[in-house]
Amino acid sequence: MMSIARTLLRDETGGAMVETALALPVLLTMIWGITQFGLAMHANNGIQNALGEGARFATLCVNPTLATGCRRPSNADIIARIKLRRFSSTYGTFDEPTVTPSPSTATIPYLDLQVIYRMPTNLIFVNGPVMVFTRTKRVYVTGAPMPAAAT
């Protein structure tokens, strides 16, 4: 009877399987977390790209003439450019971009461009919180906006 107990205590077959069973869920969760982080960074890059393109477009002189001078694009055109240039995975959703003009008391006119991206997190076994990325870019502009009828 004692020899069977000693044999079972010394037997190490199946030890690697037990260690793998304990370590594998932790490893998979870490890999999934890295993937989620990568998706978030990809979305952040898409937001920054869209804001940069919108800011560049807002500073352009549209339809310059001697009579009207230089006119900047309308806010609707800027929003359309931001929508066109944003990118991310299809995992999250974008809110409508906003263009907020400076108050009339500002010494130098500017526009605040804003993009919001919402990304739900999935922690394999449970749903995590929704990550919200809000990015704003201020761009200083000259010239009046194009009239609404011209857009």
Give a count of the beta strands, DSSP E runs of length 2 or more: 7
Name the helix and strand elements from N-terminus to C-terminus, one letter apiece: HHEEHEEEEE
Look at the structure and give the mean pLDDT.
85
Main sheet properties: 4 strands, antiparallel
Report how far the terminal alpha carbons are from each other: 93 Å
Radius of gyration over all CA atoms, rounded: 28 Å
- Any low-confidence stretches, pLDDT <50, length ≥5? none
Describe the structure.
By secondary structure, the protein is an alpha+beta fold. Helix content is 42%, strand content 28%. The protein is built from 3 helices and 7 strands, in the order ααββαβββββ. Strands 3, 4, 5 and 6 form a 4-stranded antiparallel beta sheet that branches. The chain has a 3-stranded mixed beta sheet with strand order 1-2-7, with no helix packed on it. A hairpin with a 3-residue loop joins strand 1 and strand 2 (69-72). Helix 2 (15-58) packs antiparallel against helix 3 (75-85). The mean pLDDT is 85.
SSE diagram, text form:
Elements: H1 2-10, H2 15-58, E1 62-65, E2 69-72, H3 75-85, E3 93-94, E4 98-101, E5 110-122, E6 127-140, E7 144-145
Parallel strand pairs: 2-7
Antiparallel strand pairs: 1-2, 3-5, 4-5, 5-6
Helix pairs in contact: 2-3
